Amino acid sequence: xxxxxxxxxxxxxxxxxxxxxxxxxxxxxxxxxxxxxxxxxxxxxxxxxxxxxxxxxxxxxxxxxxxxxxxxxxxxxxxxxxxxxxxxxxxxxxxxxxxxxxxxxxxxxxxxxxxxxxxxxxxxxxxxxxxxxxxxxxxxxxxxxxxxxxxxxxxxxxxxxxxxxxxxxxxxxxxxxxxxxxxxxxxxxxxxxxxxxxxxxxxxxxxxxxxxxxxxxxxx
Length: 220
Prior knowledge:
Structural class: alpha/beta
CATH class of the largest domain: Alpha Beta
Number of helices: 9
CATH topology of the largest domain: Rossmann fold
CATH architecture of the largest domain: 3-Layer(aba) Sandwich
Strand order of the largest sheet: 3-2-1-4-5-7-6
Radius of gyration: 17 Å
Distance between the termini: 46 Å
């Protein structure tokens, strides 16, 4: 398909895939594509992004399928992970809070997750994750997910700011060449040492063409 393919064609293709597969997230994406959408939405849904999220959800389904409170996704961008979490039948998640510091993300995340928003199961928040005080929240999170630890300047300091015993899913990578990556790690063991979790229920690495993504599921 050429780069000048009209948006209506992508909309029709996605609607066709949704009808073929019965996948409601694809149907939600098709609806979003049929409206005004940010150009970076394609990056949020590219194969590497979706593969890492699928990996996370598969591991979470085996490790912590029923978090005991709201699930906070930090650095959530357009709310794609929240949509996938809430639509997976293996998980019992009541509410997802999708947080990003970019003020342009919340409206797109709410449109993508409009089914869950209408049911009171999704909330988009504009804030900086490093300034959050979860202890001050009226309801303590049942799980905090941060798939972009490499972007933080002080990963150990941020982890130490979380409530003790809080369940977390953390991802980082070894893609040191990216200028915005401030805290990459070379190995999975280096990631374990960097975050210093009190418990680890899952630890794994997902190789890709240009880098390896690391993931830990455990407790602060």
